[in-house]
Amino acid sequence: MQIEELSATHARNLIKEIYKNNGFVFEEECLGSSIAREIGTHVVQSKYACLFCFLDEIVGVYNWLNVSMIASIVNRPEYAGFQFRFLNSAKNSLSSVRLLLTNGFDHEARIQLRFLRELMVAWIYFEANPLTQIDFKKPQNFQEANHFWYQHLRHAERELKKLNAGAGAFHPHMDQKLIDIEKALDAAAHPTWVGINVSATSHFHSDNDTIALQNVNQTSMFSLSTAITLSIFGLAPLKPIDFAIPNGLQLPFPRHRSLKEPDEIMRELQKVPAALFLFACMFAEKLLARDGGPNPKQPE
Length: 300
Fold this sequence. Notes:
- This protein has one domain.
- 62% of the residues lie in helices and 1% in strands.
- It is built from 14 helices and 2 strands.
């Protein structure tokens, strides 16, 4: 039986090949399979089901990096604790976006994506300026946190622009993608978005019998692509994450053909999302070409 090019089945098969090329062994299910079961498998009926597969897999990778950072706290409490804050926040944000998009809340997902973007910008800044991590953990109230932001994080966008200069390794049009993302997400948090965003009225025209939860919104391809794009800056930072997993720790780490030590396995796993991102871009571009998919309309 021929598999449709932009189907979820094709996406899942490609994901398995990506793992295989990186030396990982998955007999049946990959890391994202449990995410799909938890949050909702009915998205396979959506024309964007293939993109949900890639997002699920990235959430699955984040989850295992979280587990590894928790395990590393014993040996490197300051570093591992700091990395865990960002890894876990990013995983929770991506999971929230997945849950919102699954149930038709595209506009609300974009608001969550705005937080994710700011989180990634801060993470990149701290990777480039590690000494500021010490001050980052000090604020105990709003005034102190606000002071830290004005002193450091308002300059963080510069680090993102520096990273963009070399981001062609990820995607040749990454600069423009990030500009479009910033404009769309800034607008999403403003009430005027309701007047121009078709998803704000899409539930009214739905054929569903439910009142609150709906099917995947027809404007959600942009949000799915944005979630996958932003996730890359957490999983492929300026330098690889330095794991310090205790020797002999018994956890069901993803199986690798040649690597045995958990630290080595996790460093190899950190390389996988870059390929997931590129294939997701390919699927998104083909979906746009096939369906003339929605682009986020910007305010004049």
